[in-house]
Design a protein that fits this description.
Aspartate Aminotransferase, domain 1; 4-stranded mixed sheet; single chain; 381 residues; Aspartate Aminotransferase, domain 2; alpha/beta; 14 strands; biotin biosynthesis; 2 domains; binds 4'-deoxy-4'-aminopyridoxal-5'-phosphate
Length: 381
Amino acid sequence: MGSFDERLADALAAIRQRGRWRTLRAAQLAPGGRIGQDGRGLIDLSSNDYLGLACHPLLAERAADWGHAYGTGAGASRLVTGTNAAHLAIEARIAAFKGTPAALLFASGWQANAAVLPALLAAAPGAAVFTDRLVHASMHAGLAGVRQHRFRHNDLAHLADLLARHGRAAPARFIFAESVYSMDGDRADVPALAELARAHDAVLMIDEAHATGVLGPGGAGLCHGVAGVDLVMGTFSKAFGSFGAYVACSELLRDYLVNACSGFIFSTAPPPPVLGAIDAALDLVPAMTAERAHLAALADRLRTGLAARGYDTAGSSTQIVPAIVGAEAATLALSARLAEAGLLAAAIRPPTVPAGTSRLRLALRATHSADDVDALLEALA
Ligand code: PMP
């Protein structure tokens, strides 16, 4: 073990030398778009609790109720004894919410992507895989060792060109993209992606982690009502104020995943208290139209203010607004200065984002006020 410990220490020393050393710090989400850290209350610009539901009493109550009713743990994987009425009820509600024939729960968004992609590829060995250059790390985890044709971010002409050149002879074609990109806060043109997928007979899977609850009719996401999106994946860990993930799809795909997706088959079913919180969020989210409008107005205000101060906001058109700084050290220094001024805005650096594009990733919550946005802009001035 001695020599392995030395290897670990060397790896950490290299990370430290690159200025990429990171540590875990306790923080406490609070109502009103606030977060507690080091005994202080800060304006929170770094969480993904977009609708403020993580502190909503209805979610906490129902989590407790479902824990009492169904138990705190599911007890087994879904195909053994882990499926109870709560799982089936939530899956039916998600399918209805997303407007798809079926839905399947996963332990987390990471796990869903990392598990579903290999299962899909296993059904068509030798398939051609096309991915947007900015898809999330969890999709890359699901594509480990797979040759990818990566198209320039949101550049559908490039995708069309790659499909024409590389997809024809393959037994199947897969396109993986997101509807809202987590670090840039920009949107994909989902109908155009779906049209392209249909034209090339490609299977299209879209990650709606950051759109679920926030965009689309009643917060149902940008894939809602778009024909030709075969699988929609999303999380409950962001606007739904809870945890876990779903894949919404056809009954055929659902049945296939239940029988062929290892990350589904061999993992314990999500715990009932978490499902209770999701159930409560499903009661609230479709009607949160005013909150969604407020969130969009805050994001407009922030983008306008950032542009006036010379910041590139990377094409953001959602509640995620990056302020591109560029150099890592300068981004860290800016983040530290904001913390002193009472604002938590974490610096996002490579490898999470490309080198030279370090940024403050500003994520708004519907519980923020215009004054909160103005306080941030003032602190940046
Ligand atoms: N997809 C995207 C686009 C994400 O941003 C994230 C979370 N950072 C995930 C998937 C993973 O979801 P979860 O946090 O629920 O594991």
